[in-house]
Amino acid sequence: MVATASTMLPLGTEAPPFRLTHCVDQSEVALGTGNGRESLVAFVCNHCPFVIHLLDHLAPYFNQLAEDGASVYLISSNDVDKYPADSPEKMKALATENDFRFPYLFDPDQSVAKAYRAACTPDFFLFDGQNRLYYRGRYDESRPGNGLPVTGQDLKDAMTNLLAGEPPPEAQHPSMGCNIKWKPGNEPGYFNS
Hints:
Layout: E1 4-5, E2 19-22, E3 28-30, E4 39-43, H1 49-67, E5 71-76, H2 88-97, E6 104-106, H3 111-115, E7 120-121, E8 123-127, E9 133-137, H4 153-163, E10 176-179
Parallel strand pairs: 4-5, 5-6
Antiparallel strand pairs: 1-10, 2-3, 2-6, 4-8, 7-10, 8-9
């Protein structure tokens, strides 16, 4: 498997708005607009080994964040014609099996992934209550096969600092994962910028 790194969208960037369909109940979900709540946007997919590696830890942690009042959004932007394991029906099954208590959203035209300059799965973006980017990068140092336990420490530390009113962490490391599976001719140009 080839690992792709995050593009590391500049800190302070305003969260690009979106309105997408929740794969479980077909409701329309929109990013909150500076409502004073922290927002976590994560680009994932069903079949990526990097996402699967984190899933048992990520699901309960994200459930807790949602219960504590943060807005949590998981988004899959992959080309489902070539990767049917990432279809909305399979997304619904994964969300149900893992008891997601937050929306798992489908980005059919890949416009949301492009707006966030998302590059890989998983790719994490944490925004403050004014929808300004506070943290982007990895969940933690663990990767499939490297023997390190999954802790979510990088993201947890960022959330702790944000809730404490601290400045963003100085050390922000790119996430690593499978590249987003772009539709033919839809590949973004930001990888060369």
